[in-house]
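Hey, quick one: can you model this chain's 3D structure?
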Amino acid sequence: MASTAGDFPNVAEVLGKVLQRVPRGLQPLLIAVAERLAAERYRGWADEATDAARGGGFRACAAREEDIAARVEALYPDAAVIQRDILAANPDLEDINRSIFAGRALEQQLAIQAQGERLGAATWRAFAEHADDPKAGATFLDCAVLEETSAAFLEAVLERKA
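Sure thing. Here's the predicted structure for all 162 residues.
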């Protein structure tokens, strides 16, 4: 796995390689799968939080991830079937996702997730820019805002740790 300074994974490089495995028109559905995995991660952090406000913030992030996935999946007839096919053709996707965070301190995981949220926002904006369907474009822009909201929360948590 590619790393950056401090032995942090380069999320853009790792996920970029994964996205290249899927035709461009289906990449949003692959990202929707990743959004649901992120929601699980957020719920885990919420369950471990000793501060109620922080736990609530993580739950709100999980809800945004689920919202993003649902909005994107709603754009595709047979989204669930397509996603199953993507996962079947790429059985290592969940392991790659998990490996980005494995064995790292919580603060490192949050920093990686914040980087992923910022990358996600940029990716949704790029999809919006190239969308042929105005509804899809608007959906992708809405998803970018949701990603940025979660990134801002994570960054605020990390600033309080510093």
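One thing worth noting: The chain has one domain: 3-161.
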